[in-house]
Amino acid sequence: MPLLLSSPLDTPDATYRRKGNKDHVGYAYNVTETCTGENPVQFVTDYAVDKNVKTDPETLKERLPMIKERTDLTDLYEDGGSCRPEVQKLAQEQGVTMHYTNLTGRKPASEKLPLSAFTIENHQKVLACPQNQALRPYLF
To answer: Which among 113, 116, 117, 121 is positioned nearest to 137, based on CA atoms?
Structure first.
């Protein structure tokens, strides 16, 4: 049986994945870099190239301990799609505060409120709902 590649640059271990409405063949590339205005120069501190069937949270769980060991990482900014309990637990164990963007790779459901509509303290305690109604303290 002949081996079919979608690109002459793909190797036989390149994989297929459908994310949202797009098909992807190849690899997933994740980069960690410094991102503070206090640094005169920003640096790439880690990268990982994996088959694209490996999720970002899986890669993050694997790489975070290594990044922490090599840097003085205290805060990490990540796509909202990586907001998973196991990632939060690992980050806490590593002494890293996670910050998530609204980018989740999914189209927001019109009948649901996004997390960004709530007032949340320290990424754990919900202080108010979108209509500024105080809520009973709730810890994630």
So the answer is: 121
Q: How many Cβ atoms from other residues are within 10 Å of residue 60's Cβ? A: 23
Q: Is residue 78 in some structural domain?
A: yes
Distance of CA 55 to the CA centre of its chain: 9
pTM of the predicted structure, to 2 decimals:
0.61
Question: What is the C-alpha to C-alpha distance for residues 96 and 67, in angstroms, rounded to an integer?
Answer: 11
If one counts the domains in the chain, the total is 1
Residue 65 in any domain: the answer is: yes
The 8-class DSSP code of residue 139 comes to: B
First to last CA, the chain: 51
Report whether 89 contacts 65 (CB < 8 A): no
Q: Which range marks the domain in which residue 39 is found?
A: 15-104
Q: How far is CA 120 from CA 10, 53, 116, in A?
A: 44, 32, 9
pLDDT exceeds cutoff 70 at 34: yes
